[in-house]
Every structure is written in structure tokens, then in C-alpha cells.
Amino acid sequence: MAAAIAGVFQPEMQNLIKESKVLLVGAGGIGCEVLKNLVLTGFSELEIIDLDTIEVSNLNRQFLFNKESVGKAKSHVAKTSVLKFNPNVNITSHLGDIMDTKYGVAFFNKFKLVINALDNKKARSHVNRMCLSCDIPLIESGTMGYTGQVEFIKKGISLCYECYPKPEPKSYPMCTIRNTPKEPIHCIIWSKFLFGQLFGESDEDVSMDEAVSQDGSEKMSARNWAIDNEYNPKKLLKKVFYDDIQYLLSMEDLYKDKEIKPVLLDEALFNQEQVDYDHVPDSELLTLEQCISMFLDCTSSIKQKLETSKNRCLVWDKDDDDLMNFVVSSSNIRSAIFNIPFKSHFDIKSMAGNIIPAIATANAMIAGQIVIHALRILSGKYERCQTVFLRKMPNHKGGILVKDRYLEKPNPKCMVCSTDGEIVLSTDIYNFTVKQFEELVLKKKLNMVAPDVLVDGRMIISSDEDDEVDLYGKTLAEVGVGDGSRFSVDDYFQNYSIKIKLYQKEKSEEEDPDFEIFGNLEELNKADDIKNNVAQPEENDDCLIEKDENNVDGDLVTIKEQEDDTVIKEDTMDSDPEVVEMDQELSNEEILAIKRKADEAIEDINGAKKSRVD
Prior knowledge:
8-stranded mixed beta sheet, globular, alpha/beta, 6-stranded mixed beta sheet, 14% strand, 614 residues, 16 helices, disordered C terminus, 18 strands
């Protein structure tokens, strides 16, 4: 190992590498690469934690696993694999959730350094808070396709993970998905639900449940209808894409004053001869006839897989050709019915899981930079741990690994790492319940684990079951909270505290969000001014993104976050720009990035002028 070879590192650095205990959170695409690098560098005291088991789709980039590993715990298999490189390393592997209460402050305090290789914002935020609480350096990382970044986080020295807000996953009303799709992404989501309804365990019924049994004696669900008809591909095709559309059109009020409404396909299409589609590249569009042939073929294959599966239930997998073809053909056929542009197989595969494919080489380059950061952190050279970006294309200097010019200081207004964090909650206290406040605001939005809440010295939410505080069913107004009240919120597990000032605001329209959070009253007033001066959407417009995302009982579908390591700065990045329906203002973080690039360009110009003079 590198640290054991004389002359590679200074003696002091050699000892630091051998003796420093490091925690690696995540054993996916980046995690596998980092663990290998740590072992080969000479780190000998390691712990790794991951809650996932290995799937077939992991094998193309998570090289510590093989076919025999499928179904086993990632952390355990990763440990076994790297011990073959160096059996003298002391590695402890955990199959578990880093947010579990058993991995608290005492657990984190064991480590000299923590490295994140996670795939979701909630867990990232939690590890960020734990490291801030324990004052332990953290390396945050992520890749998205050919791009990526490595960030250093240290209390009081650098930005923390939550210094600037991250965008939320996009949500779509289920009524849009079922009845009034307007974009390709709506049809793709519908197709995945259809697969779950027919072959999986989905409770979302996107095919109209007006089907009747073959003898006409009873109405039944689409799943039972498909079983009753032995998953006959042609019958299923006509049922989903003709009979169901007729049923939609029979509801006259549904499409009254709507610009888009479905059109019945020519019935002759359902009896067409098979059309070849195998020769069409994934990047090119299929014809409607080719999509119908693909639907018939893949449905027959899926039927066979269903018959041999456990409990006659399948889980959709983008790497299974038949299952992927089902979504490709279904979404494009539905697009034809609603006059929506087709998408290619490649585009639909990227959009179906809202993912940009992970690239093994990008993971490897980011993992290498992570270990370089780790060595600098252990030697106390924090000033050299600027954020490093992996670019898809070389910059003006020919580089693809580009670092910030300086280490950014913490955001003084950060509600997590600032000493005087306070935020403003805008909601209707007469309709917003204590349970909604805990689940939606504290746990979902603020990523807390076990919050305790006091208002004017009275506890309204307790993480201790013995306190017998049960006010969940009451509204905020009913427990004595009023306009201008202040909540004192503590999560002792995360050692995180925040104050929340309440601003009463009655919902004026059904589409208004149940609550909004602002950094201060000035931001809230600015948002009100913008809303009052911007044209409002048409009444009954059900295609708003991120509008009702926090409604506990709302009928919404949310695009899940990037799988694996597909995060760069934000945790959700839209792989299809056509689905973005509203302009967004630049965040402070984006403005700083633009300013840095401008400064670099000016510096390069000045340098070029100087060289010409010399």
C-alpha cells in the first residue's frame, strides 16, 4: 500500500493515514471507488455503511460486485472485495441507515474524517448536521453523467451542505397523469404506473376500472381483467388505448374548455401486421406502428416472466429490455392519443427514473479527488480544499478538473450552521395541523429526525413517547399558536436547533401551497409582491410543478431523486428541459459561481495581455 512504501509520504503523513479512522457513507458507484482508493492508499481503520443490497443494474459501474453478489448487502460485499487488495486493513461494515438513532453523536465522534457517497438529499443533510455537531470534517461528493464535484465541509470554515437551498423534486397532480397529460414526462410516468398496475404491486390505477369480466357479470380492476383475459397482448392493447380513452371521452365535463383532449386511434391499428422496430437506433424516434408492435412483443415476454416470478409480481427495472420497452411503447402510444411529441428510447430511459446514466470513469475521477482532499484535510491544509468540479468539456485552459479559486466561507444566514438561525413559516394556522407541521415542515422540509417543539414554554411536539403529548389531530390555532408566534425546535439526536417565526396567511386559492418557508420576513414580503404582480394561472390548471408538493393527502406524483451518485450541487436535475414550466431566479450559490467564472476570465485576459507585452 502507498503509505507503507518509503518515500511516498512524509513519516508524519504516513502515521496519520495508518491511524486515522475514516467513515465512508455509501457503497454505490462513488463509494466502491473511494473504498478501493482508501485501501490502496494505506488507510487501515475504516468503517462503511450502506442500507442497500446489490441489484443487477449496479454491476456496470460498481466494480466491487459481481453476479454472485446480487441480493447481498453492498457494504459487506464491498468490504470482502477490498480485503483481497490488502487483508491487513481493519474494516467494519454496517448494513443500515445512517439516519438510524443508533448512529448518533457517540458513533460519529469515533472518526477523524467522514466521506459521503450518498444518493439522496435527506441523508446528506443528516450527515452534514452530525458532522457539524461533532466538529468533524466532511467530504461531500456527487456525479451526474460526465460531470461531478467534490466539496469540503468544516464547521466555521466552509459552506455546509445546507448553506444554500436545494431544489425540491418535481411533483405532478395525478389527475394530470390520468386524464390530461400535456408533456412527454406525464405519459412516461403514466406508463410506469400502468406497468405497476398490471404486473406489480402499484395501488395507482391509471387504467380505467370500468372493465368487466368475460361473462359480463362483474366490474373488475385492470389487473384482474388482465388475469381474466390471460394477459392477451391484443386485448390489453385495445383495452388500455381504445376502450379506456372512450371512457375518458364519455366524461364531457372533463375536457370542457381544455385545449388538449384525447383522440381515438384508428381501430385498424389494433389489428395491424407486426412491424419491424429492432433496426431503429435507441436515439431515433419510433413510428406509432412500431410502438404498437413493440407493445405486443414485450407484453408477451413480460407475461412469461410474471408466470415464473415469486408471488406473480414484477418490479420495473430500466435495465430489463422487455420492461423498458413496455414503458417506451406505452408512453409513445399515449402521446399519440393526446397529440404529444414522441420521445426516443434513449430519452425515455433517462426520463423514466429521472436519471442521467452514471458513468464509471466520472465516479473514478471524483473518487480520486476525494482521497486527495482527505490527505489535505488530515494534514490540516484546509485552505487547499476548494470545491473541485469535473467538467464534461475542457474549459478555456483545457482542464476538465477545475477547482474554485478560494474556499467559500459559511453563509451567515444558513439555518443549519449559523449561530442565530431563524426562518419564517407562512401557513394557514386554522387548517394546518400539528401533525402536518411535524411531518411536512420539520421532517420532510428541514430533514429532522426526532424534533421537540416548544411554543411560549409549552411543548406541542415531543420525541419522547413518555411525555404523552398527543396534539397531532389539532390545528396550530387550536393549540394556541397565533400570528407572530415563535417555535423553538430542537433535534437532540442531530444536536440541531432552530427558531421558526409563524406568519398567518389564509390560502386564497386551492392551488396555493399548504405552507412556504422563507429565510426572513423580507423574503416573504418580496414573494408576496411578486405573486401579486404576476399573472395568475388559469383556473383549474392542474399542471403546476412543485405547487402542492407538501400536501399530506394531496393526489400528487413526485419524480424521485437521482439514483446512485447522480447529483451535482442540486439533488434533482431535470433530464428533460421541456418539462420546466416556470422560470426560476438564480440562487446565491449560482450567482457566486458566475462571479467566479467572470473573475477567472478577466484574469486570463489580463495574463494574455501581459504575455503579449513581454
